[in-house]
């Protein structure tokens, strides 16, 4: 019992921790996918106030998309970071990339070194109508991370 119980507890803690991290990752990917879908069709309303960290130069439609994405992700908006990027033109047929970062919330810290302490999601979709009013903008990346993986 003394030999098996610690191994069993560690195994169960790892399974639970993986489940919680995986849930946060899937929640984030679903929210980012919904956000970029609303962005490419220009259906970005005024989602209310949210905290945008370091993207003061972003115009109103881009800020609204960033706030709406944070709301759709459903995780703590204060800890979330979002980037909107257009690799080419902003007209129909071009593409929009929406990236999101969220700090890894690992109970046992087993996955911290594997994922670098940050969960990341990137979704790219083809633009369905002119988005010339939008712009590229990025919040300040989380500590220990950057946006090079997004652009």
Description:
The protein has helices at 4-40, 60-73, 112-115; strands at 81-85, 95-103, 118-126, 137-138. The longest helix is centred in the N-terminal third of the chain and has 37 residues, at 4-40. The chain is built from three helices and four strands; from the N terminus they run ααββαββ. The chain is an alpha+beta fold. A four-stranded antiparallel sheet has the order 3-2-1-4, with helices on one face. It has one domain (16-138). α1 packs antiparallel against α2.
**Number of helical elements:** 3
The helix content, as a percent range, equals 25-40%
In what range is the share of β-strand residues? Answer: 15-25%
What class do helices, strands and sheet pairing give? alpha+beta
**Helix and strand succession?**
HHEEHEE
Q: How many discrete structural domains? A: 1
- Biggest sheet, in brief? 4 strands, antiparallel
How do the strands of the widest beta sheet line up side by side?
3-2-1-4
Low-confidence stretches: none
Average the pLDDT over all residues and give the rounded result: 88
Evaluate the radius of gyration: 18 Å
The outline comes out as: elongated
E-strand count: 4
Distance, first to last CA? 52 Å
Briefly summarize what is shown.
By secondary structure, this protein is of the alpha+beta class.
Descriptors:
single chain, 151 residues, alpha+beta, four-stranded antiparallel beta sheet
Task: Describe the secondary structure blueprint for this structure.
Layout: H1 4-40, H2 60-73, E1 81-85, E2 95-103, H3 112-115, E3 118-126, E4 137-138
Antiparallel strand pairs: 1-2, 1-4, 2-3
């Amino acid at each position: 019992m003394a030999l098996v119980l610690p191994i069993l507890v560690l195994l169960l803690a790892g399974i639970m921790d993986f489940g919680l991290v995986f849930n946060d990752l899937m929640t984030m990917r679903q929210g980012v996918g919904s956000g970029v879908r609303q962005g490419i069709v220009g259906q970005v309303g005024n989602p209310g106030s949210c905290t945008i960290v370091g993207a003061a130069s972003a115009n109103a439609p881009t800020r609204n998309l960033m706030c709406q994405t944070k709301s759709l992700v459903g995780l703590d908006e204060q800890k979330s970071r979002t980037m909107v990027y257009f690799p080419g033109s902003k007209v129909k047929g071009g593409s929009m990339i929406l990236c999101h970062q969220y700090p890894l919330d690992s109970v046992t810290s087993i996955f911290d070194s594997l994922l670098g302490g940050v969960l990341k999601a990137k979704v790219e979709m083809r633009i369905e109508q002119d988005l010339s009013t939008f712009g590229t903008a990025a919040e300040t990346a989380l500590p220990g991370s950057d946006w090079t993986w997004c652009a």
